[in-house]
């Protein structure tokens, strides 16, 4: 009911998310002070969970208040961190924004490119439309280079996943005959998706130059 949803949102936002924000989540200050690669990874995972709990907590609060007044607001998060591919992630993260972007950016841009007399290949159209859509979502959060980089990161991720799924669809259907292999592949897919999303938060959390340095440090470059 509304009261339970409201209480859940308050707990997620003001207890867990705010606690993580006090020192266990990546920010410009602790990123500059980090002395090890492992320390940066801990901060990054903390930031990933802090961001999700913060955003989804506010959503729960709004939905709970709406229910108390007889108003049903749309869901905005649907367990995004357990999805097994980047497309499914974006179908369950900030769903109102991603739906808006698909409707007003991806679809009209794709149709417009298809109508060109000298239209690009289908692959190029998908790439351009996905990049434009995710750049729009990135810049919606703030007009800055780091948000553009974050949008491009996800646009490229969506494009690669689309190409991969198109070329492996028959093989993936064949896994239905091998339940154990299918479960292993789902686990690998989840780990890869979660890791890709988490690494991408570096661009979201930090100014562009610092984000680029942290990206290098996460993989052992630039740590003394």
Strand content: under 5%
What characteristic shape results from the CA principal axes?
Answer: globular
Helix and strand run: HHHHHHHHH
Number of domains: 2
Summing up helix and strand content along with how strands pair, one would put the structural category as mainly alpha
Keywords:
76% helix; 2 domains; 9 helices; mainly alpha; 224 residues; globular
Folded structure, characterized:
It is globular, with a radius of gyration of 19 Å. The protein contains nine helices and no strands. The mean pLDDT is 96. It has 224 residues and is mainly α. It starts with a helix and ends in a 6-residue tail after the last helix. α1 runs antiparallel to α3 and α5 runs antiparallel to α6. The protein has two domains: 77 residues; 143 residues, no CATH class.
Topology of this structure?
Blueprint: H1 2-21, H2 28-33, H3 37-68, H4 86-90, H5 95-114, H6 122-140, H7 145-174, H8 179-205, H9 208-218
Question: Summarize this, please?
Answer:
This protein is an all-alpha fold and 224 residues long.
């Amino acid at each position: 009911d509304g009261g339970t949803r409201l209480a859940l949102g308050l707990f997620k936002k003001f207890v867990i998310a705010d606690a993580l924000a006090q020192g266990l989540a990546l920010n410009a200050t602790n990123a500059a002070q980090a002395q090890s690669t492992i320390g940066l990874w801990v901060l990054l995972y903390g930031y990933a969970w802090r961001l999700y709990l913060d955003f989804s907590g506010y959503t729960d609060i709004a939905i709970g208040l709406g229910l108390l007044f007889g108003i049903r607001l749309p869901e905005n998060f649907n367990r995004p961190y357990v999805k097994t591919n980047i497309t499914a992630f974006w179908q369950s993260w900030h769903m109102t924004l991603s739906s808006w972007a698909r409707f007003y950016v991806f679809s009209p841009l794709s149709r417009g490119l298809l109508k060109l007399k000298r239209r690009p290949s289908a692959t190029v159209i998908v790439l351009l439309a996905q990049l434009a859509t995710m750049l729009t979502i990135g810049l919606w959060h703030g007009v800055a280079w780091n948000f553009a980089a974050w949008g491009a990161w996800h646009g490229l991720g969506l494009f690669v996943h689309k190409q991969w799924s198109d070329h492996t669809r028959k093989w993936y259907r064949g896994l239905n005959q091998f339940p154990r292999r299918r479960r292993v592949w789902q686990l690998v897919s989840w780990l890869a998706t979660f890791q890709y999303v988490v690494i991408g938060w570096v661009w979201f959390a930090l100014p562009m130059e610092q984000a680029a340095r942290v990206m290098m440090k996460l993989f052992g470059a630039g740590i003394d």
